[in-house]
Design goal:
The structure is a homodimer of 134-residue chains. Chain A has helices at residues 10-19, 55-59; strands at residues 6-8, 22-29, 32-42, 48-52, 65-73, 79-92, 112-116, 120-125. Chain A has 134 residues and is mainly beta. The first copy, chain A, has a six-stranded antiparallel β-barrel. In chain A, strand 2 (22-29) and strand 3 (32-42) form a beta hairpin. The two termini of chain A are 22 Å apart. At the A-B interface, strand 2, strand 3, strand 5 and strand 6 of A face strand 2, strand 3, strand 5 and strand 6 of B. Chains A, B: It holds the Pfam family Pyridox_ox_2. Chains A, B: It comes from Amycolatopsis sacchari.
Chain lengths: 134, 134
């Protein structure tokens, strides 16, 4: 970290998270750090909802504290901002409700819907990045 | 996971990782899952080298098993491929040697150079994704 870095408010962080559709869930699988890219949406109350078909890996994330990260990287590999939400992952009903939430690896099967309640929200960005798509 | 997903060989996975400049290191910090976006390069022997100034967070990753992930996401939020390397993170000398390896948050300070030896390499991609930039 250094002086150039600007901390984003919780509200601004969740706004940026909601402005993109892909992030990465971070959890522990077989005692090792694990990460999977997934699609997400952000509910009005700030809950992060993801859907996945990766049952082997993601089932081990349920009912544990996970991190969820999304960022904005420009074509020249410049990281404009990064938002990290930390909270407990819960399986939720509602696969049908979130059917439009595509699983990147899937063919329209319902899959698992996981909700992450954002207990901690951290966001950082370069001052010149206004949060709009590059 | 489903039938559409193609597993990438270790060689192909490392080639794709080397084709991009940004990824995310996943580690444990204060008993919670943590993730930070950083810049990387891949050495000829497959070692992943990252540089960072985030001493508080990243020092807790040293000498532990970490995951490192990079992926390709198109403008319409389609995930083309994802590569995940798992291995022990070691601090390395050579900040000068890797000075060109930009820290996204930094102003040219030397920072920490961390090496990850790829004990496990996993890569997955959609069959129609050929690994070229979107």
């Amino acid at each position: 970290m250094n002086g150039r870095l600007r901390e984003l408010s919780r509200e601004e962080s969740l706004r940026r998270l909601a402005s993109v559709g892909v992030g990465r869930i971070v959890f522990t699988h077989q005692a090792l750090p694990a990460i999977r890219p997934v699609h997400h949406l952000v509910e009005d109350d700030g809950e992060v909802v993801i859907r996945s078909h990766d049952r082997t890996a993601l089932l081990s994330a349920l009912d544990t504290v996970v991190a969820y990260e999304a960022d904005s990287v420009s074509g020249d590999d410049r990281i404009g901002w990064s938002v990290i939400v930390t909270g407990v992952a819960r399986r939720a009903d509602g696969a049908d409700r979130y059917r439009h939430l595509a699983d990147p690896w899937a063919d329209g099967e319902p899959g698992y819907v996981i909700r992450i309640r954002p207990e901690l929200v951290a966001g950082f960005g370069l001052p010149e990045d206004n949060g709009h798509a590059p």
